[in-house]
TrEMBL record:
<dbReference type="InterPro" id="IPR035906">
    <property type="entry name" value="MetI-like_sf"/>
</dbReference>
<keyword id="KW-0813">Transport</keyword>
<protein>
    <submittedName>
        <fullName>ABC transporter permease</fullName>
    </submittedName>
</protein>
<keyword id="KW-1133">Transmembrane helix</keyword>
<feature type="transmembrane region" description="Helical">
    <location>
        <begin position="296"/>
        <end position="318"/>
    </location>
</feature>
<feature type="domain" description="ABC transmembrane type-1">
    <location>
        <begin position="111"/>
        <end position="317"/>
    </location>
</feature>
<keyword id="KW-1003">Cell membrane</keyword>
<feature type="transmembrane region" description="Helical">
    <location>
        <begin position="146"/>
        <end position="169"/>
    </location>
</feature>
<dbReference type="GO" id="GO:0055085">
    <property type="term" value="P:transmembrane transport"/>
</dbReference>
<dbReference type="InterPro" id="IPR000515">
    <property type="entry name" value="MetI-like"/>
</dbReference>
<feature type="transmembrane region" description="Helical">
    <location>
        <begin position="48"/>
        <end position="70"/>
    </location>
</feature>
<dbReference type="GO" id="GO:0005886">
    <property type="term" value="C:plasma membrane"/>
</dbReference>
<keyword id="KW-0472">Membrane</keyword>
<keyword id="KW-0812">Transmembrane</keyword>
<feature type="transmembrane region" description="Helical">
    <location>
        <begin position="115"/>
        <end position="137"/>
    </location>
</feature>
<comment type="similarity">
    <text>Belongs to the binding-protein-dependent transport system permease family. CysTW subfamily.</text>
</comment>
<feature type="transmembrane region" description="Helical">
    <location>
        <begin position="238"/>
        <end position="263"/>
    </location>
</feature>
Amino acid sequence: MYRCHVAASFDSRNSVCVVSTDLSVRTEAKRRQPTHLRGQFSWPGTTPALLVAALFTVGPLAIIFLFSFLSRPAQGGGVVYKFTLEPYISALYQSDFVGKTVFDGRYLRVFGDSLLQALITTAVCLVLAFPIALWIATRPQRLQNLLVLLITIPFWTNLLVRTYAWILILNENGIVNSGATALGLPKMELLYTPLASQIGLIYTFLPFMVLPIYASLAGFDFRLAEAAYDLGARKVTVLRRIIVPLAVPGILSGVLLVFMPAFGSYVQPVLLGGGKVLLVGNLIASQFGDARNWPFGAALSVIILIMLMLALMGIAVYSRKAGKKVEISL
């Protein structure tokens, strides 16, 4: 049983009765409240699910991180449980026949080519996605739902099937060359080139840029833009000072969703590019496959992970300073 001390006073000027209670009663009431909200699972109920989620998410990353510090066996694949930094050193330095360690920039060029291809993919997707998302956001609501459905239709089909469709489009007797021949133009060598790989990446990741930007613009009241037009603002000014700042969270989210998978992509460079340009994804696959150098392949994977984490930290710092919440979601 709790005691409550109540003191009452009357303010003659404002004709108000002031009642004050002992704060200890409020403290005891807070202690009696349940530790979790209604409908929320307690820790014993969520522990199995959390363990399974950690096993299939953090577990593989932990294994790759461990393998990157182990030694390579003398023959075959796998690892030898002996700590070494050789996999990371091999990314920058190589030993010649006399045992002299020299700088080797081959793998840096691979990272540079992958970074360039990811940046081009991200930039082109942004240029194409922003007007598409803005146009969708200005349509009637029913039409918006239909257009968003059309954007998501490619997700219904396996990525390999869509990539093989581009092989049929870009090959020597494909639609592009058949159209060029009909117009009297010479046939172009499109398939198994860096251009074909770039086209495949842009096609694959374009929806990942459109949907976040549309989500940022969907709730915008475009009457504000109309008011700006009435006050004499030009279209470029309205776009730059009203619409683009509103879409910044969606743009940043789309940039992350496109850049991160494009940087380590594997399917498009192999199937469309023919493996002529060595990228990070192909390099890692070859280390785990043909070269059977698991520690070095794991070290390359950890380096990519660190680079992407730095990019995420940079976006987080910018969003905190700008006061804009950025979510990596579709």
